[in-house]
């Protein structure tokens, strides 16, 4: 008589259990990736750059924009190619607020918060029939992670 092996009734249970665990793991991972995609988080290219370079650009252009906004008339002297910028320095506070609001709106598009405070301004001297005013401004830029704050001195050139 041949010897028969005992029949195990649970011989395939381990394989089935591993298959179920693997299937559940795949479902969980696909569900998590779908949830992550649905968060709609957008990281712009600007975030890849440092806030310092953006702040340096603001420092460079804020004074030029302030000077441009202050000018209400440009004249050209007859016979010469010399332009004279006319502006009223008594409107400096209103012009500063306008410039600050323009930069605030621009930076908000990139997810940054910009603020500026006009510390003080004063008449300095006259060169080539142009009046030079100094404007001390505190500039601040914040992206939620990094905060930069600095006092900047600009020279504004115009003739009343």
What secondary-structure arrangement, pairings included, does this model have?
Layout (H helix, E strand, L loop, with lengths): L12 H25 L13 H20 E6 L6 E5 L4 H18 L3 E15 L2 E13 L4 E12 L2
Antiparallel strand pairs: 1-2, 3-4, 4-5
Helix pairs in contact: 2-3
Structural description of this entry:
The chain is an alpha+beta fold and 160 residues long. The chain folds into two domains: 10-41; 49-158, no CATH class. It has helices at residues 13-37, 51-70, 92-109; strands spanning 71-76, 83-87, 113-127, 130-142, 147-158. The strands form two sheets. Strands 3-4-5 form a three-stranded antiparallel beta sheet, covered by helices on one side. A two-stranded antiparallel sheet has the order 1-2. A hairpin with a 2-residue loop joins strand 3 (113-127) and strand 4 (130-142). Helix 2 packs antiparallel against helix 3 (92-109). It is rod-shaped, with a radius of gyration of 33 Å. The model has no long low-confidence stretch (mean pLDDT 79).
């Amino acid at each position: 008589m041949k010897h028969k092996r005992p029949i195990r009734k649970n011989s395939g249970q381990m394989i089935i259990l591993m298959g179920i665990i693997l299937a559940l793991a795949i479902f969980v991972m696909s569900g998590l990736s779908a949830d992550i995609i649905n968060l709609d988080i957008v990281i712009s290219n600007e975030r890849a750059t440092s806030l310092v370079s953006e702040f340096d650009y603001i420092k460079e252009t804020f004074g030029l924009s302030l000077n441009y906004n202050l000018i209400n008339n440009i004249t050209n002297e007859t016979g010469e190619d010399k332009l004279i910028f006319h502006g009223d320095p008594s409107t400096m506070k209103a012009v500063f607020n306008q410039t600050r609001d323009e930069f605030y709106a621009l930076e908000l598009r990139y997810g940054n918060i910009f603020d500026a405070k006009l510390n003080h301004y004063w008449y300095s001297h006259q060169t080539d029939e142009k009046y030079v005013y100094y404007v001390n401004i505190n500039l601040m830029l914040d992206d939620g992670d990094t905060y930069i704050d600095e006092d900047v001195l600009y020279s504004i050139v115009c003739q009343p």
